[in-house]
Amino acid sequence: MRLDKFLSECNIGTRSQIKDLVKKGFVTVNGTVVKKSDIAVNETEDDICFKGTKVNYRKFIYILLNKPGDVVTATQDKKAKTVMDLINPLPAKDLFPVGRLDKDTTGLLLICNDGELSHRLLSPKYHVDKTYLVGTRDKLTGEDLKKLEEGVDIGDDDITLPAKAFVDEDGFLHLTIHEGRYHQVKRMLEAVNNEVVSLERISFGGLKLPDDMDYGDWRELTEDEINAIIQQ
Ligand code: URA
């Protein structure tokens, strides 16, 4: 890989900024200052430093964000603040949210630059589990829970796939679904003559929202978490 491509993929700067930084002597390869940014490097074996700090090459970056309820799930938006605005500094270019949470939905959102994984996690073929903690307008009955579990008519061609539903001691519904239709949870609650008053995603494809993360907090996935999500 060319040095300038490597450094730009690691978000050191644009290609022209990198050319300049390399010329100024800020970059070393295996301990030697290099002055040309178009040289070939081995991204996995060479020791490449920028201003004395090793630049680690990772093909993909995976970020877990606790989405607050006042940002939109998009890479950019003309008016509203987006989830990407919260990731600062951006550890890589080309990051995007995997799927979509409504603006007022909070909780676990995966952000990455791995298109293949994203495609797989969102594909209806793979039935990836998503668990939501749902505040409801009215108390749910056993009959409602049974209907939510068996599948309800939300106005699409097919009823919803079997789900898991229970109400905890604080009255919150824990709903695990295996598909990701538009406004699915809100429409499922409407189908049992109820209404969502708060919605938080607490797990997604083997990832769990950590208790110690506040709204807007984010971090890169641990190796174990990456393995868990990749094996979905
Ligand atoms: N279901 C919804 O209705 N909204 C979300 O944001 C996620 C699931």
Key attributes of the depicted protein:
9-stranded mixed sheet, binds uracil, about 20% helix, about 230 residues, 3 domains, alpha+beta, Alpha-Beta Plaits
Structure description:
The chain contains six helices and 13 strands. The protein is α+β, with helices and mostly antiparallel strands and 232 residues long. A hairpin with a 5-residue loop joins β9 (164-167) and β10 (173-177). The structure holds uracil. Uracil binds next to α5.
Note the topology.
Elements (H helix, E strand, L loop, with lengths): L2 H7 L5 H9 L3 E3 L2 E2 L14 E3 L2 E2 L7 E6 L28 E2 L8 E7 L2 H8 L7 E7 L5 H9 L13 E4 L5 E5 L6 H8 L4 E9 L2 E2 L9 E3 L2 H8 L2
Parallel strand pairs: 7-11
Antiparallel strand pairs: 1-2, 1-3, 3-4, 5-7, 5-13, 6-7, 8-10, 8-11, 9-10, 11-12
Bound molecules: uracil (URA).
CATH top level class name of the largest domain: Alpha Beta
List unreliable stretches of 5+ residues: none
Main β-sheet description: 9 strands, mixed
Average of the residue pLDDT scores: 95
* Global outline: elongated
CATH superfamily of the largest domain: Pseudouridine synthase I, catalytic domain, N-terminal subdomain
Indicate the proportion of strand residues.
Answer: 15-25%
Order of helices and strands: HHEEEEEEEHEHEEHEEEH
